[in-house]
Structures
1.
Amino acid sequence: MPFAIENVRITDLTWLLAGAGGPRMLASLGAEDIRVEWKDRLDVLRHGNPTIPIGKDRERVLNGETVMPEAESVNQGGHFAGINAGKRGISLNLRTPKGKELFKEIVRISDIVVECFTAPTMKRLELDYDVLRKINPSLIYIQQPGFGKKGHYVDYVSTGPVAQAISGLSEQSGLPDPYPPAGWGYSYMDWSGAYYCGMAMLSALYYRARTGQGQYMDCSQAEPAIYMTGTAVLDYMANGRRYQRTGNRSPYVPAAPHGAYRCQGSDRWIAIAVSNDDEWRALAGVLGDPGWTKEDRFKTMASRLARQDDLDGLMNDATQAWDPWELTEKLQAAGVAAGACQTAEERMFRDPQLKHRGFQTMLNNSFVGEWQVKDFPVKLSESPAYVGGTLDRGFPCYGEDNDYVYGTLLGMPKSDQEALADEEVI
């Protein structure tokens, strides 16, 4: 079966997660993604932990051992491998005149250019949208600065946690006052920004198919995060109520008990949410109908909500006698929403549902060999959606596809490529 967007070519100047995630999605749907890098300022994910082990260390990891190897190459970044699977990779120095001219030739045969530098960067390089659209009038250009192309924050440098904080999400997460905000994890906003970027690119391709026109797209990373604060914003606008952190408790929909409770083992937990009295009685039955579940103070939802501290303490005492997975299965069978709080190892290597759906996929890289990455999270019935893309391979090694891009696509002789490499252009 053909991929949905098999004839689309992306020139990819992104890095980290927020930038690289959108084009990664399109590569999974069939686009040819050409990732442009230069050795003097590589994506930090190429260097950072976790490092993909090679040789004997690799076999030990695949056999379930815990290994933390030191990187021997820029081609071992674990996060980089996951976010750049199915892409091609070239080396190109955009700070040289010849490098800029080569970049323009690549843009000439591309459908999309996507970058996530600070807002003025490409203009300073004289490679911004106004320049590139003269070369390719139907070009789609996506810029992903942290806070947009214009405005008060235009020169701010941003990462996922910064966008998350300014959006208000960090303040909303954590235990109630006087405890400090906890945040939502390091890369949460990176993925949110990536999804919006992917959606924007697909919409621009659809628009161009209808009209023949390309366009510029300003994809701020912070604004998608603000969408996720919607209920709190609406509550303040309509009722004047400031959001109060609630920890694991349900902030708006009545539910009690509602939280994560200790189970057997070291640091093992189960999430349980009870939203009506029928579920409460079912929960009590699974736990063996302990006496406290029959007390008047927990009889109704209103009374349970009023005594959540007491209820959570009793729940923790009761669930500690259980294996989290056994309790999950029994509660689910009784109609109670519950799920074991999985570790990374369980989620990636033991979860039977993810295994059934083929979520973890082995892809080959020319340096590390086969390595497991997360597949595209949506299944399409009539076209492939596959993290290896049309290449059916993992992440690109640095400069791996120079000969394909400069030789096959641009028609440059091998001798010229070697000369440009000597000049520190490619």
Note: The domain at 9-227+354-422 is CATH 3.40.50.10540 (Rossmann fold).
2.
Amino acid sequence: MSTARTLMAIATDIWNVLPRRARWVTGTLLVLWLGWSWLFQERYGGASVIVMSVMDRPVSYASVNGNGGGNTLAFDGQNVGGKIAGPYSITGDSARIDWLLSTTGDQYDKQGLRPEEHTITLPMPKRKKGQNNFCILFLPNNKPLVRWATSCILEMEPTVEKYRAHG
């Protein structure tokens, strides 16, 4: 017998041994618990980590509380790049952001820049129902801006617009 079949047989035997009143109480409690879970419990589900940057250097990796995110290219004046990873369970009162600030070929060869590892712990932003994207926008001087959003692109657009080259 398979494990599932064995468990089903045990559950059926227990159900058959219960008196009628106990079956009604058990069934009612099960229905009430399922209804409570469906109607009143906060359900957030998994979250995607979306990494964007307005820095002139690429970000090779970024993570939130140990959950790996994507990478970005160096900001070209228009596109913030960015990749999506997940879904993850991102919880807690703080968000530990780890990232590797990389270099382009010219930055490495001509400017002598080298990759740099960074870590910062920020307060976890408040998450509302429907916000399934954890957005990380790397600002100049290695300052990450984090927030929950339904769409990181729309949420971060006003901030990104300040750094865009208009010509």
Note: Residues 47-161 form a domain with the Immunoglobulin-like fold (CATH 2.60.40).
3.
Amino acid sequence: MRSIKLRRSVLAVLTAAATALPMMMTAGTSWAADSEITPDHPGGVAAPHSPDGVPSNGTGPQFHTWPMASQYSHSHLGANPKGANDFTCKPAPGSRPVVLIPGTGEDAFATWSYYAPELKLAGLCVFTFNYNIQTNPDREWAATAGDIRSSAAFLAHYVDKVRAATGAEKVDLVGHSQGGGPLPRAYIKWYGGDRVVNHLIGLVPSNKGTSVYGLATFAGLDRPGSLGAQALQSYADKHNYESLPQQLAGSQFLSELNDGGMTAPGVRYTVISTKYDDVVTPYTNAFIRQPGVTNITMQSVCAKDHTDHFGFTYDPVAFQVVFNALLPDKAKAIHCVYVPGYIQ
């Protein structure tokens, strides 16, 4: 368990620190949707055990903590979360398919082994995917790593696949970290998601990026040409980890994504965060301050909830909030229980 916590601590620091790179690009570099990136040709790196994005290396058990699920995903590459990706599932009247989007450097199983079976049990058609993995060496469990535009274009392809199988006109999206913020919003803005997304629920999303607790400026990561900036750029280029630099607060990618507003007409938005977030800092960078957006801090719902960034998708109280947002007709009073943080 100690080694798992250590890896999580390292990943948290790396995820936050490496998000500095867009600030290091030349002024002429544009992060807006690339005409060469399309849903049919997204340009990212496929996960070998997830053909066309579908985790296909057996079905794993439901876990109730992130460290256990993450450990399992490392030794069972491409494991499918229980209850997910049944392409024969047809949504009940009044409901829509739910697509679960992993966060940066996480695969579908590590992120969603708890949520998928719970949502399936609630009668929903649940889907999730793996794409754009870390390279050199290939690490399938570190998915959603590459250029966010490529991941967003692939999400467009995957949603079309889900809609074709289920017959649904629209879907609901639930995403963690990058998967709850920049990735689905890029899909909505640049790849047609505004026409088919009913509701985006973002869990600790990096909507406005991270300040790395102010360390980006302290270490010179936001100064073009600095040694730190060059080292980070080299790391991202070598390992297909461009999504990390794209998520630094003030990055050119986020500036272009957020230009003109962070929402699209006709799409509902719910953002749920925690004041104990140790990756998206300050935690308020998750929130979208625009009309029609519901922003929720977990501690305003349950003061005993100390969940952090990585543990968020294993927080039973947060799950209740998500359940109520997805199924308002079946909404229940929140049962507040003590939830410890995983990194303190």
Note: The longest helix spans residues 148-166.
4.
Amino acid sequence: MTHADSLALPPNLTLSEFYQHATTTLQALLATSSPGSGESALVTCCANASSLLFGLFENYPQKWGTEPGKRVNWCGFYFLPTHLIPHHRTTGSPPTKLFLGPFHGRPACSFVPLTSRTPGVCACAFLSQTVQLVPNVHERPGHIACDGVTKSEIVLPVRDAKGEVIGVLDLDCEAVEGFGEEDRIGLLGFVEAFERCVDWGPKV
């Protein structure tokens, strides 16, 4: 199977089956035959994971597809600078920003503030270490509008090998209530599989 073929979906999948397929495909896509070679580096895994999810959403017209006003229009990651910026020095102070990582969709905000009086959705997911499911972003205080067509959003924490939250996976949809409880459960499984695929380096 070529890498592009990973976007193919079996017919007539339920939503639960869709996420099971996405997770299994992710594991195959990110599997490496050369541990320590860099194939499982965080940025590399993020790039393919976001592309895979975005493409699978497009190929699932039962819920999203490519129709304007219905489709998922953004899928990507934000991380602490220590995981994206080479030689970044920690100060011992609480982090103040998450920085944009690999994504699929239109250009996005280059960082997310963590110290705003009313935190945005990504900041809330990171700070609370819980999934944020937003049926209508226009009714959510603090929402950061990177794209005006976005109507709903779901953000999931991403944890490293030590179980520490170091970033988030962010998904936007052009439909109100574009994500629900079944999506939350399915995406949690996807993120957990992603975390196991990444080479986080030695546990120190």
Note: Residues 4-197 form a domain with the Beta-Lactamase fold (CATH 3.30.450.40).
